[in-house]
Structure formats: C-alpha cells, structure tokens
Amino acid sequence: MDWEPKTKLGKLVAEGKITTMSQALRSNLPLREAEIVDALLPDIQEEVIDVRMVQRMTDSGRRTKFSVVVAVGNGDGFVGIGTAKARETGVAIRKAIVYAKLNLIEIKRGCGSWECGCGMPHSVPFKVTGKSGSVEVTLKPAPKGVGLAVGDVAKTILKLAGIKDVWGFTTGHTKTTVNYAMATFDALRQTTIFRVNSRLIMPIYKGGVDDVRGNQS
Description:
single chain, Ribosomal Protein S5, domain 2, 4-stranded mixed beta sheet, about 30% strand
C-alpha cells in the first residue's frame, strides 16, 4: 500500500511495531489516519446505512447536499460508524467511510444468555443500552439460533460487529435513521467500558440474565 504515515501511530504501524488493530486501539494514541485501519484490517467491509438530501437556504439561494451514514466492520469484533455531507453522493460516501474508520472501536462479545451457555462469542456478554437523540436501543444476550431480533438498521451494524444472536428493544423515533444507527453503536460501545468477568465470556453457570454483572472500570 502506497501510504506515507504522518502520525506517530501510523509510523509505528508502518514500521511493524504495531501489528494488530487491538494493539493500535490500546496504544492510547489517536487514530487519525484511515490507512491504519486498511493496513491492519484488510478484510474490513463497508455498508451505506442511509442517504438523504438536505437543503439549506442562503443569501445566494437554496443549496442542496447529500447526508450519508456509513458503517464499517470486519465481522469479528471491530465496528465503526461515520456521517458526512457533500454536494455529490459519491464524495459524501467516501468521506463517511473515512470518518467511520477513524471512529472504529473493538467491542466485547460473549455468551451472556442463561439459555445458552455455549461459551462462544456470538452475542453480547450482558445487557447494554445506547441512546442518540430520542432513540434508545437496548441489546440483550440471546441463545444460539435466535439470530438478530432487531430492526434493519441495527441488524446491519451488528453483523459488521460480529454479533450473530441478540434480542433488541427500541424506543423513540426510529424513523430517524442516523439516531437509530448512532444509538445502536452507542449500545455496542457500552461493552467496551465495562470490565468483563471471564465467566461472562464462557459461562459456567445457569443463572438468569439478572445475575450477569459488569464492574465499571
């Protein structure tokens, strides 16, 4: 890849001192180059969540732009979301993809459902809730075979994150696609701010969902 890194993190990646995306995110160095994600996650996928036209009145007349929401992920624990505006759809999509890569997070997955206990990282490890605007999204662990019991917008983001089974509950004005997408992303982000007990990843008990606890770090 023809890329000349400009940041400290980019130079460490180019020099081979950081070889995984997990190391890059845990380095406490800001992620400011999308090429870092391309280098460490060559299999990353992109999905356009929403494209809509927005208009603004100015002194010179009405100006039209396209607002785009894009999600990226490798289907194995890494996911990001970005929004952008531009006069042309293609330009807006490319900008949103870059922002989504710079907003990449590594989520925690597990088998938090008392009905399953398989120990495989196919669901969320515990109940999480995310909010954006009026939209609130709650994700609960589900046993294998349930699939993604959520709306289409959330389903796309969860697939990119590598979540295969989950129960989802949503309140608010979900027709606002950008808020719905951001609330889902915020819910996934909640898995990263809790210190997860190993038995939530590989359950060895048959307790109820309410028995699942996370200690906030």
